[in-house]
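Supplementary Text 2. Reproducibility record for the structural model of the 232-residue chain.

All settings were left at their defaults, and a single model was retained for analysis rather than an ensemble. We include the record here because the model underlies the residue-level annotations in Supplementary Table 4.
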Amino acid sequence: MAIAHSSLLSSLQGGLIVSCQAPPDSPLHDPEIMAAMAEAAVNRGAVGIRVDSPAHVRAIRQRLPEIPLIGLWKRVYTDSDVYITPQRHHAEAIAEAGADIIALDATERPRPQGETLAEIVQWVQDTWALPIMADIDSLKAAKVAQQLGIEIIGTTLYGYTAATAGQSPPAWELLQALVRDCPGFMICEGGISSPEMAQQAIALGANAVVVGTAITGVDVLVQRYHQAIVGR
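Retained model, structure tokens:
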């Protein structure tokens, strides 16, 4: 059951949200493994979990019924670069699985099959009354998201879109601009690779921090070490 709107953001304030995800070809890409990983994170102080796919949301919700879950569903399309909860039926599946917050790509990129961000946001608000996290890449995208009534803004896609090509997260300058020009609940996500960087994000005004790869990215981290050792 979703956590009450009134207390959700306060429960995340000033805290660490751990992204529990694994590549689809990884043996870790299993609902029960992700649920165990999420429980380990919560046991050590995480205030929330960000998780991909309905099956993984459902498994974590069953194991951690009281912990705020930011749910998304990554889907790849040939006619669109949007892959984080790109369509309405993906948002519906995440909501039905038990997420408290639905994360959506909120960049200016066109969505698959002609759907629009505004339509999906309106449907989520009308049907589920759940808060939405806008995964953005720019100040302009954040402002559009807020105009649509999205409560939570995340720097998730900074450096991962054509518009921000060549930029490397964490998005310190973008975060500062968001805090200055977009009053609301700001989450710094992307490129946070140390406790000191997470601390810096909060100091710059983020309401919460999402850390993924640096904590749960076993596949990526092992590959980096291996490549460094063998020199390729």
